[in-house]
């Protein structure tokens, strides 16, 4: 096959209908699909379900890269904390499914990109921790759930240029922001390669494995013709062997 | 790989949120995923987008079977009729994407199962037509959008036993029903293998290709432990070479 | 025990809450409870669930009378008809549960009172049929879903005085009305003991068993101090041995 | 009778309909019914109404065990406190009805299990007090209204093994959590047999009477196939003489 | 007192609030109040309740004129018809209260003006009948529930000039329209003094008593500066002795 | 006339309808009407509008007592304070109208009863002040917007027996509570005759004029058969000369 | 000035907010603005208000072309018909304002383009009539309110090539459709230059004045990159002297 | 032309409709239009879009004055601050469009009036800053989002009489208030000409250019017949050369 196959994880949605009220939808934001197809790769939506190791092995077998999409908060059990009062909605079933995907992807040398929740899950998998809500951060922070259209950048991410992600984004890049949780302790073997002005980590990468995490939503900016964000997907996919 | 890879098509959903109002969700009912995984096959959700032949070739390359899932009415342009007043919601983008999937699946000998809208699309692809609404059917019909829980059967489908589908379902089987359109003229080379008592076509199959269509939703019945409907998926997947 | 124990059947309700969306409520209108307790009897709400004969035997063992409360349409399967287009919401699970209750109540000589849906279910159990919607009635009918407060009577029921129910209600009584289905063929061994002016059956009773059905809602009128309707419950309970 | 009869208390619900707006529903979550019937006991829903001692005597006469279900906050009048600003919705009518049930159950040696609000009511009946809202607890607490599906455990309850409940749950058990009030002073003659890590009481039992309270919702976990929680109901019912 | 006291009848409204759901509001459209006060008369809102003759005598004692305001359909019992399927919302309590007001007003020579429902009630009191819905009218009718702002006239009422009302409105006047019921047989001793082009009665008056009825809503037009409609109220009030 | 005429003030309500969206309803809670009529007095609803002195003189001329009903916050301009951030919804038009009613009632020796907002308005008229929100009270307060059904008392009001109101209520009485504002400085010539345990003023009366204010809602308790609260209205009306 | 100034008419919208409920928004669909600006012309939104001839003269003075945008039904008074029962929402104020704009535009030789309602208003201005609803058309019609995304064409308009509009659209063009009214008698001096297959008029133009009307919404198709529809605006604007 | 042409800026609105969900409305509150037309000037609504310098030049060419209307918060990027947590909804596209309008208006000597957001944008353009929310103001403030009808004044603005605006409003004027942001540092060359009692800036003007800003909404007060506010528009327009 000529196109890279990109496996992307899904969340749950509901329809407002009395008869179908307990039949949920598994889906993802169409913006991811467009970002991937515009970059000439092939998107495969991996549904979230009570998966087994065998299921996961098969998915990993098919894909060239794994994208962990945005969504609910990571269940704090996965970074060994009690749940605090300002924790948001969690999805334990999705956590276990996606952590298994991470594990198998690593075993099979499949690169991983985590977006928003995806980055937070990667950090948790490798032993890092999260602040369960921005209000728990012990220093002053700026707005991280923007009340602007999603394609409009509202912050600057300052990058360390000597990194895989920094090589692309250079010194700084304008980003959007939609999260109420942030990284607290960075996972072992990871480098924080970008921060906002208030010190929040905006991007991470593993020191020697092809595992990347970004806290903002480039696919929503790409959807509305932001070329830097669209080309980021091309850059990532071109790096795949 | 040991598991059959089942490509399943998706629809669009929206979230109620002013800021994200024009960012749609591509997704499918989780019941399909469960029906497939319980049958020990691997579900791949194929997103709906403005796809090219190359995209479709790649999907067909990966999958062992194509399931066309339920959803909007087929655009009457595809069976050469004007749109009538009682036509329901259509999704032209999805139609063109899925018709291309059908075309390429046939070219590559990939079996196809159409469910509800899926069966109607297959019939349209092969030159058949639909009644745009039950009220246009020139004979008396019974209720075809049931106001019961989706797992409860409310009709009998009478099968012709000497067919692939009839071989499984035998003479008759209890089914659910959620559609306002039905087949009018059956496509060339297709056989109507099941009907309800009022004469509505409930299942079709191609005379020599592995292409099947059923009008009801077995996956919703399987979701609530209906064994006949769950085993139907196993039966279909076991038939894959 | 000095008080009569009245078993009353329940329906399903839902709460508007994303997290609890598939956890349903089993409940009944409080008006029944008040009508029963004001008549110095003891109300026992029998939940609707996937019951077994053993469960039902136990309930019958405890109660002195069975009240079948109002609710969804009876599934036409139980009177051997196909479902027609204007059929309303059905609840097959509840039908099977309540039909078992009827069967066991009869076996154990427990009197039965059916209200609205309850009367229609009794008629179906004994072989009668229903018009699936008022519009299927072949003669002119008046309003049977009133758009008035439920305690206000909007019709006259004309009774045959020489019956158990007519003995109480005498020649005529003012009633409320909230139904879209009506009896078509009366069940064998039943007598239609009351009609509205348009000829719709408003009350039935078995020729020799203590089984009664009324089409209106006396408990809603009793709730707002209608003495005829409240005393009807006293009359019924006093008739219990 | 061979099956144990379990009386379970009810709450109030409303339907969205202008004409029926002041006709309330008395009901309970179906999960309790399923937990009880899977344990081969017989559920009797006891409606909430303005009951008299005679009504209550009759209910107690019928049942083998009383389950006090979840619901509104206990009215602080019943533990001799003024109502504070963060008190939640209360239901005084239900409080008086259920306190009478407790009183009569004790008089007649009927065992009692209180769940969530039920445990809090038991504690109030016996002279204990509640914190009217988690924010009034004078030490740091974790999340006690989980934003996860109800069947997913989000906390550990640490049990004292030398107790009736601890004998079943052993040292620790994973629980769900949906409450904003907690026990402040434990009632006389009661033992706190389980706590979460932050010190909140999760289970109590009387020193010599068969009266048990648990703060979480085992019936919601049992509903989704949690065997420890389902078997807890079997364990309790088996203990009934 | 120098100002005429105008008693005006009220309807019921509800507030969306769980706690106050069964506490209704008694009220009337503020436009009536403004029309009356601009005409230098004094508006007295007469609440709708389960009134006695003594209550009504007192109200009649205070007022110089009675205005019967718009609202629900008249209960067909008051013109000796069964309720038909397209009858709208009724308010029996309000009917009996207002019919008593009419009776006492006549006894005490208090003039009456009926607006919309008010005119229909007057016609019923005096033995006339209504078409329960426009669709029951045996000839073709135009739109009578306008989908325009209420102050915009959408019809012409053609008046008989030799009448009290025609003396004011002259040959024709532009009116608004918001009703689904119309007069069928006119009450004895009444004259139909205005019609729309399709033959619907738009105004009536008694042959010798000061009792007037109009089918449209002059107060809504007066509210938005329609001088003909505002002066109509001045004309009526000036006619009071 | 034999019955006392009670003038009661009104608020504004809206209907959900695009065409009538700017036509408001003037109305009051039906509970007041019932409390007055059960006490054999005659309720006259005084609409709120841009009234003149002449309008008010006429109303005062008709009535034997003025009841100022509950509703929005008093505009702080009337007690010479700036509006603070937690001030609630105000209704300046209603304030000016009702203050004129107070002024004219006093001039004409018409007794006044203020309920909730009514008491707060009386206090403002006579020069007293309010805390614009409970959170501005400089001492600890209990819940004053109860989350219980309105007829259920949730507090004790402790009365000074040597007063007009205390003569009726005696030492203490159980009350409901639905307000977020409370009296700060009591108006000149007024006596605070009742308090809750936290020190909030629950009733006031003028030292020598027949002007009374109570902070709770007796009419809502009377509506559900609370005899103390119903008889309070009889007591007040009997005191009228 | 180098750019053509395009005056475009507006409709009314409301915001859901109790305080601002009677403050309306005057606005138009942004798609018109984009279609105009992409064609390098300058859009001027002309608000709808109770305008005078002088206001209208000034607007006409500024603009090079008038676009009458889509919206409510034309009030039938303007084509001398009574309002029929299936007439939709009208806006009389907007009609009078826009008819004045048409009159003055013609007087000043300003070209006019009417879209949907705009075309219907032009036809009414010049003496033509409309079918007030599709169901009044005396022949069979197809779907004219499409249930597809607005940018997707669902019909073919067949053009007469020897006309100004046909010169651009050629023989046939794919169009969308969102209207329930259609032209009945064409206005004098107008030519119907396009029809759908069922015979409905889709475009008109004046025989010698630069006045054009189209029944569909080209601006919505242009918004989603339909080049034929975008270039139509360029074609029109280029024709302006 | 004899009338002054007033260009007024617009915001975005949405309609609740699945099919049109991503087609937005560009509009403004009708009150501005009425205030302008009553002052005998001509309102031109300038749509918000992704405008170029050429577009803006053309608009400036047409208008005699620019009014910047109310709306979202100014994006803090335009006064060089990070976005803080309590920032409200922003509209970056509108900011850039309107800042360009300001720039070109100044270049062409077109006077500017900023209302609410408009004043805040002017201050930002000239280098001033805003408090992103009232809670960030370091001194005590009063209510600035009134919960009263918009035409009712709830504050006093104290003016400096020796200014253009003070010349009109004199020492003090009663104003309404609907904003959660306020000026922090005043822009260079601007004078704060009015304050509320808590020290918040309510009006500004440039020292030598015809640029004015007011924080409240005079057009909403003018809409309901406030003459001071209506005449303010006449005063401003009369000052235009």
Largest sheet of chain A: 9 strands, mixed
Q: Helices and strands of chain A, in N-to-C order? A: EEEHEHEHEHEEHEEEEEHH
Q: How much strand content do the residues of chain A show?
A: 15-25%
The tally of strands of chain A reads 13
Oligomerization status of the protein chains: homooctamer
Rounded Rg of chain A: 17 Å
Shape of chain A: globular
- Unreliably modeled segments of chain A: none
Question: Treating each run of at least 4 consecutive H or I residues as one helix, how many helices of chain A?
Answer: 7
Determine the most extensive contact between two protein chains.
A-B, 42 and 42 residues
Question: In which range does the helix fraction of chain A lie?
Answer: 25-40%
Topology at a glance:
The structure is a homooctamer of 241-residue chains.
Chain A: E1 5-9, E2 11-13, E3 25-29, H1 30-38, E4 42-46, H2 53-62, E5 65-68, H3 92-107, E6 112-115, H4 117-125, E7 130-131, E8 155-159, H5 164-169, E9 172-175, E10 182-183, E11 190-195, E12 201-206, E13 211-214, H6 218-223, H7 227-238
Parallel strand pairs in A: 1-4, 1-5, 5-6, 6-13
Antiparallel strand pairs in A: 2-3, 7-10, 8-9, 8-11, 11-12, 12-13
Helix pairs in contact in A: 2-3
């Amino acid at each position: 096959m000529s196109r890279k196959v990109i496996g992307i994880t899904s969340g749950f949605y509901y329809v407002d209908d009395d008869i179908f009220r307990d039949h949920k939808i598994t889906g993802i934001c169409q913006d991811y699909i467009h970002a991937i197809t515009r970059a000439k790769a092939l998107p495969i939506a991996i549904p979230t379900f009570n998966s087994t190791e065998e299921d996961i092995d098969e998915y990993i077998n098919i894909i060239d890269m794994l994208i962990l999409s945005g969504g609910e908060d990571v269940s704090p059990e996965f970074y060994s904390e009690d749940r605090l009062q300002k924790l948001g909605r969690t999805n334990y079933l999705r956590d276990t499914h996606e952590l298994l995907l991470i594990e198998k992807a690593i075993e099979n040398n499949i690169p991983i990109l985590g977006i928003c929740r995806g980055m937070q899950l990667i950090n948790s998998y490798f032993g890092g921790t999260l602040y369960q809500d921005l209000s728990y951060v012990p220093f002053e922070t700026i707005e991280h759930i923007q009340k602007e259209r999603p394609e409009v950048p509202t912050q600057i991410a300052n990058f360390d240029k000597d990194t895989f992600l920094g090589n692309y984004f250079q010194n700084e890049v304008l980003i959007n922001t939609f999260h109420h949780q942030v990284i607290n302790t960075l996972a072992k073997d990871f480098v924080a390669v970008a921060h906002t002005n208030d010190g929040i980590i905006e991007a991470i990468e593993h020191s020697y494995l092809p595992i990347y995490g970004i806290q903002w939503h480039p696919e929503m900016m790409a959807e509305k013709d932001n070329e830097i964000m669209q080309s980021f997907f091309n850059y990532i996919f071109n790096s795949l062997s």
